[in-house]
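Regression check, NAP case 227:
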Amino acid sequence: MMNFLILGRGKTGSLVAQCAKERHHHVHVFGSDENQAGKALTHDLLRDVNAVIDFTTPTSVMEHISACVREKKNMVVGTTGWYGNLGSVRSKVEDAGVGFLYGANFSVGVNLFFDTVRSAAEAAKHKYSGQIFERHHQHKKDAPSGTSLVLQRIIKESSGTELEITSFREGEVVGMHELIFDSPNDRIYLCHDAKSRRGYAEGAVLAAEWLSGKTGFYDFKDIWREL
Ligand SMILES: NC(=O)c1ccc[n+]([C@@H]2O[C@H](COP(=O)([O-])OP(=O)(O)OC[C@H]3O[C@@H](n4cnc5c(N)ncnc54)[C@H](OP(=O)(O)O)[C@@H]3O)[C@@H](O)[C@H]2O)c1
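Current build output:
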């Protein structure tokens, strides 16, 4: 049983709290009202916390990371949109000797999908033309999705071909990613369709458990097989 401080009471942070409780952890959750500009993350508050889990915003997460590094608290970051600072965060984490795990996608299913796509990328070397489609709810601000950019990168690395991404924003779609390879003879169709955000939340809690007692800088895509 661990003490988690979850930052973010939004769609994903709330589910992370629920999953952590189901796994019998102690959970405190702070939204932006309780933690303006990361001000709540004091030495006293963090003393008994085993790990901080962040699902907030690209603008607030850097303050949270600085506070956790300063107080030598392990941290799991699901928040995206701050990766331009990855290098400097990595240095700070390693200098402080703290544990830090981040990931653009904490769903084990999506990470399995990435592996499937990596082997299917061979098609691009055999006269197949490929396309990536991604669908998300109408509230999603960024396009294309981070996950579709990872798919594009995997195919580029494996085959040298850069596929076009087409984004759709509609209704309350949680997240659907499709990869289609088409040839005159046949069509290969790969799809990951998230039914809920629970896959991300469960992955984040398992990642925080995995990080316990560790120091270093980790990407979820490199460790999910160990969960
Ligand atoms: N890695 C993954 O697997 C994964 C999966 C899903 C989402 N995400 C990422 O996680 C982030 C959150 O996504 P979401 O869908 O949950 O968004 P969301 O519903 O908009 O929730 C974000 C929450 O962060 C809160 N917040 C902002 N500043 C804060 C602060 N200083 N302290 C505490 N809470 C603060 C906001 O509170 P207010 O509303 O009060 O401002 C809001 O409730 C995004 O960057 C998203 O891309 C990652």
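Comparison notes: Residues 7-13, 30-33, 35, 38, 55-57, 60, 78-81, 103-106, 200 surround NAP (CB under 6 Å). The chain has a mean pLDDT of 95. No diff flagged against the previous build.
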